[in-house]
């Protein structure tokens, strides 16, 4: 089955289920301790629904990456609750949480995080290591969708920045995740490639996937259903659309 385009259609959704938030963040807090205590998340609440594209904007150090890592089940909060698709991932064992993450969540980062000595196709297929549903056919289809077919055998280290990010996006989508988390995904790209990436994320959301993107770049909001502003570990206000968060 096609991967990138099959979010809502392939999951059995009752009317009740579609009304339930895919991601329900309730009163998350996270304090970094060390030489200095920093409250990176301060009582953050947020709901993300299936098919929503939400941007969180904020200055450097406002807590955006911490929020993304916490929602990505990679950084345990000190308090508060995270529910994704009705489950509380931080209540699962480490192994079960890793499986849950591999199954439900795709990540896109500013720095791409491709494996430099693997080819484009091998990079896109890499999630097969942790997700048994990833097939070569899906990887090839995404490679075509992102205009990388003629680079199939190039090593990731031989790609341009735009090609690397498109490859990283294809890799993030090959598992057909419910949720895509993106941290400054256009930070290293020129305008043309940035637009390709943003349109691909918007397309993913239009087909039923949920996208949460954190950035300091105002231009990314153009593609979002909602933009929230973050400052000092708190979500301050909704910049566009209807209010949903604290
Ligand atoms: N591992 C850590 N240990 C201690 N403090 C940290 C750690 N990670 C982040 N911080 C601090 O927590 C605050 C929030 O950091 P975070 O990376 O979430 O912000 P951000 O909004 O993503 O910033 P940027 O846009 O610069 O990436 C910052 O003050 C940062 O210095």
TrEMBL record:
Keyword list (alphabetical) reads: ATP-binding, Hydrolase, Lipoprotein, Nucleotide-binding, Transport
The answer, when asked if Magnesium is one of the entry's keywords, is no
Q: Which Pfam families match?
A: ABC_tran
Q: Name one GO molecular function term.
A: ATP hydrolysis activity
SMART domains per UniProt: AAA
UniProt-listed Enzyme Commission number(s): 3.6.3.-
InterPro entries listed in its UniProt record? AAA+_ATPase, ABC_transporter-like_ATP-bd, ABC_transpr_LolD-like, MacB-like_ATP-bd, P-loop_NTPase
Superkingdom field: Bacteria
Task: Specify the protein name.
Answer: Lipoprotein-releasing system ATP-binding protein LolD
